[in-house]
Amino acid sequence: MAEMKQVISGIKQEMTQINGRMEKVEAGHPHFNDSILYLMDKSTQHDHDIHVLKRHILK
Predict the structure, then answer these.
(1) Which ranges constitute the DSSP H helices of the chain?
(2) pTM here?
(3) pLDDT of amino acid 11
(4) In terms of domain of life, where is this protein from (predicted)?
C-alpha cells in the first residue's frame, strides 16, 4: 500500500511539472503567432514588389 502511494505521488509530481511546462508553452505561443504573421506579411510585400518590378521590366 505504501508503495502504491509513492507511485501515485510520483505521478502527481510529474503531472505538475508537465502542467508548468504547458503553461510556459501557452504563454510563449502568442509571440510565435506574431512572428509568423510578421513574416507572412513581409513575404506578401516582397511578392508584390517582385510582381511590380517584373511588370515594369517587361514593359
Answers:
(1) 2-58
(2) 0.45
(3) 92
(4) Bacteria
Residue type (1 letter), 31: H
In the chain, where the domains are located = 1-58
Q: Which residues of 19-53 are buried (b: 16+ CB within 10 A; e: fewer)?
A: eeeeeeeeeeeeeeeeeeeeeeeeeeeeeeeeeee
Distance CA(26)–CA(17), nearest Å, equals: 14
In tens, the pLDDT along 22-46 reads 888 777 777 777 888 898 999 999 9
C-alpha cell of 52? 511590380
**Which one-letter amino acid corresponds to residue 16?**
T
